[in-house]
What we know:
Elements: H1 3-8, H2 10-13, H3 16-19, H4 31-48, H5 53-61, H6 67-73, H7 79-91, E1 95-100, E2 106-111, H8 119-137
Antiparallel strand pairs: 1-2
Amino acid sequence: MSSFLKESGYVLESGYLCNMTEINETTPISKAECSGSLRNVIDALYVLNGKWKLPIVLSLVHAPKRFNEIMKDVEGISPKILAQELKHLEQNELVVRKVFATTPVSIIYEASPYSNTLQDVLKTLSEWGAGHRRKITGH
């Protein structure tokens, strides 16, 4: 088990995952399925962690953009953090960086076809977030 998992208590706090049952079934998830599911969630969170990655991807889903256009879309992000996050997203194949040999050099970022695999995740996360906000704020 990684030191992150031990230190964060993630496994203990997420223990409910191992007690869940498949939708419309009464059979509990096996220990192997639980371990695989937990590993999958950790992998996904590792790639999408932080407060900036998903807003950056969402900014690029509608149209390719230059660095400064992304800065305007994602309010509050610093140039240094944006550069780091774009690099991570490119390494994980969620963003494509295109360099054009113009004077000066033009660089355009766009959402990759692979980023489309996040569509259902983002929809579900948005629905959960709206429900959570209503629960917490009463609105």
